[in-house]
Design a protein that fits this description.
The chain has one helix and four strands, in the order E-E-H-E-E. With 108 residues, it is of the alpha+beta class. It has a domain of 74 residues. InterPro entries: WD40/YVTN_repeat-like_dom_sf (IPR015943).
Length: 108
């Protein structure tokens, strides 16, 4: 697949990029600083409660901000965001890969 030839103002840090040839779009993993969001902790989960407390302390030390990660789908022409999903607090995407799934019908 061809590499993008121009810069696009995304206002984020891109951690991964993949081109999907069939859909003719780019999928990227990005992060940007946002106000800290509270972590969801299940009742009785002591490890989760300690992790949430540590995250709250880290956010307080950085002025109440944290890195929020998201997955975006961009159209190649204008670099316009076609679809986006924000990951939960504490979730980090480490890689992105483009795959094509074919729907097959069984002979039954």
């Amino acid at each position: 697949a061809a590499w993008p030839l121009r810069r696009a103002p995304l206002r984020c840090t891109v951690h991964g990029l993949a081109y999907h040839a069939d859909a003719k779009c780019y999928v990227l993993i990005a992060s940007h600083p946002t106000p800290a969001r509270p972590r969801k902790v299940a009742d009785g989960d002591t490890h989760g409660a300690m992790a949430a407390a540590a995250a709250s302390a880290a956010a307080a030390a950085t002025g109440g901000r944290e890195e929020t990660h998201e997955v975006r789908v961009l159209s190649p022409g204008q670099a316009a965001v076609e679809w986006r999903t924000v990951l939960e607090p504490g979730e980090i995407a480490t890689c992105v890969k483009s795959v094509t799934l074919r729907v097959g019908r069984s002979p039954q």
